[in-house]
Structures
1.
Amino acid sequence: MFNPHVRLYLAGFILDFAIMTAITVIPFYIYNQLGGDEMMSGLFGGVQSVLYAGTCLVSSRYVGRSQHGLRWAYAGLLIYLVFLPSMLLSRNPWVAGGLSALAWAGLAIVWPAFYSWFGADPDPARRQKSLGWFNIAWSGGFTVSPLFAGPLYDHAYWMPFAVVFIGTGVALLLVWSLPRERDYFGVPAHEDANDETPVDWKSETFLYASWMATLVANIIMGVMRSVYPKRVNDLVAAGQLRIFFEGSPAGFLTVDAATKYSWLAFACSLFTVLIFLYFGHSVVWRHRLGWLIGIQVAAGAAFWTLSTTTSLAVMLIAFALGGAALGVGFFSSVYYSVANPRLKHRRAAINEGAVGVGGFFGSVVFGWLANRHGMAFPFQWSPLFIGAAILFQFWLVRHGARRVARMQRSA
């Protein structure tokens, strides 16, 4: 059988294929089967995200001390496999939303365990390469999944949920076959480094800023995944969606809204994959704030264009830049989070918590603003928020440098 690294890469691809299938179709399930709107969709995504973040942070103290951390991943995968497809059993939004939130809580104990397993590798260069390939694998699942999920939903709304059930089951079997960290890497699975382990001081300096960049990127993702599908749904229904800026729409743009949105989701995830591919085989981005700041500026400008555009081409560019921002922020923060082996699981959990908190604010706050003031309003004002977040990241790097100086003096 494939070696353990490859099996976990494959599990990441299949699991995220299943997860992105759910993410792509749940908003349309809310609009069409549950009778909801963008606010309900945002609330679903927000509750999922906040429960994900909270579970990450609470579980980290227990998973990080486990002698076999992947056992927690087994439990999380089983929870997701059972609860997410169970949404189909009720047309009550409260029940469906609760089931989806419980499913995301299961995922919260899966991903930190995965990253902790890779972080146990004592070789930094090999660890970076492994993280790169794993990020490419799971984001590859994110990339191709929408191209299937949208058409499947438009054909029969229940079919994507069957894909979720089958895909999560296959991922569970693959993870079940993996050896413990201690057996494979020759180190303990929890708080595994001794006091002699060298500290990567530069990564310590940039750690907090990278978490903030990840939070910002996931706010953008929360909006794109939970709120913006309503904009696409409305444009398709009204016959207002265009390829560029032509006077009348092509016939294929007036039907199957989920399929049209799936193209945007594909562009977003594709650029995340491309960033992961580059970052996994390069060192030029390490410990350089310009990479984090530059892509957030570009994503913020693109995000603003989503407020009023009816052009599918413009939307594709905006979603691509949002995906690139996620790639830069997330890869950087994962790398810095596991750079200190003694704290790798706890910090991987905090990083996943930033993913969840960002998704919560993006889904709930933007969903509420869009419902109250119109879809354009939160997009038009988002550059102010992103600008403030960027200034805060500059301060966090300076704070990180001072914190590292104190740590070095006391070491």
Note: Residues 201-238 form the longest helix (38 residues).
2.
Amino acid sequence: MLLMTIPVIAFAQSTSKDTVIRIQLEDSKYNKHKKKSSTEKNVLKFSPLGFITGAFPIYYERVVSDFFTVQTSLGLTNRNYMRSIIQQASENNNINFNYPWDPNAPITDQTEDSYYFQYRSAAPGFMFTIQPRLYFESDAPDGAYLGVSYDFYRYNFKTPKMRYDSFSQSFNQRGGALLDEHENISDLMATFGYHDVYDRLSVDYSFGLGIRNVRGVKYYYAIEDFGNPTITPLQGFATYKQTTFNFNLGIKVGYHF
């Protein structure tokens, strides 16, 4: 009986040891691919879906402590498809234009509405952001975080000036000299997100809520006719502004070092 028991005990010990070693190896392999090195304090990122809002930044996140980082970005802007869709759907009713005539006067702007691109075209602009982040698990830049961000976007446009079309015997924007328009957008946002850090790459998911302030300049052309024998054309640049609620869904892909 004693001789029969010895192999069973030896087999059980061997099996237990193999299981422990296997678990340790799997855990080590997971940590190697999942966790950052303690000396890596920098992350470079880009936004693969930035073309939707016409923003093309490069993000840089720097670790300040185990629970605190600062993310900044600098980049270019172009046509903002998302904002065009939203404003066209609302018919620009929530934007206050400052024209040089009485708002009650029977005068209307005859140029293309803002955010329409039949005649207007987008031109390169610029943007920058800054966002301090607080990581909940004190393992920055890995895990869930809460951030406060300030984002500035400058969108530039080219729009043709009104010209007389002899064929239609009327004024329109087709073929006129190009004029400059622009729009400045400032966002103040609270952002909640999760930064998943792997061996060298990272994926940053975020959701933000905040306030958007918009200020822009638009070309206008109008006719002033109060029953006089002469009709006086009006043209120049009108300013406009808008304050609205804003939300943001984002995903960024990064490389940490």
Note: The mean pLDDT is 85.
